[in-house]
Amino acid sequence: MINKEIKKYLKLMRPGLTGPICNTLACLGPPLHLLLSISDGDTSKLRVTSIMSIFTISLMFVIWYFYAKQNKWYRKYKGRLKTLFYYEITGEPSIYTDAIKAMRDLSFKEREDRIQQLLDLMEM
Q: Which of 45, 87, 114, 119 lies 20 to 30 Å from 15, alpha-carbon distance?
């Protein structure tokens, strides 16, 4: 039950591709119109079409830049979002958060010993 809620929240936080793709398709209109008007030999509105093409191409790059930035942020903080959503849903800290905090307090040698003990138990 709780895992379904967490997955639902994570799905809401994940950046979608539909917005950037639709904006890209809309921004391709002026550059394609510029190419078609040049190939037809119609140069009556070349200056306006060129300015609009430059503007929409730069807008397209900005849109994709922010999509990549959001996607990178999502992949980086996905684990922290899970614990945050768990705390938000249940009102209690996650079991994994307590285990991670306990491991951070140990020295490197103590961590190695614990891992070795776990490996020994698995071999039995």
A: 87
Three-state DSSP state, 50: helix
Helix/strand/coil for 3: helix
- Burial of 62 from C-beta contacts in 10 A (0-12 / 13-18 / 19+): exposed
Q: What is d(CA 13, CA 79) in angstroms, rounded to the nearest whole number?
A: 12
d(CA 56, CA 49): 10
Neighbours of 27 (CB within 10 A): 19
In which residue are the tokens 């991670």 written?
100
Residue extents of the structural domains in the chain: 2-76
The pLDDT of 95-107, averaged and rounded, is 63
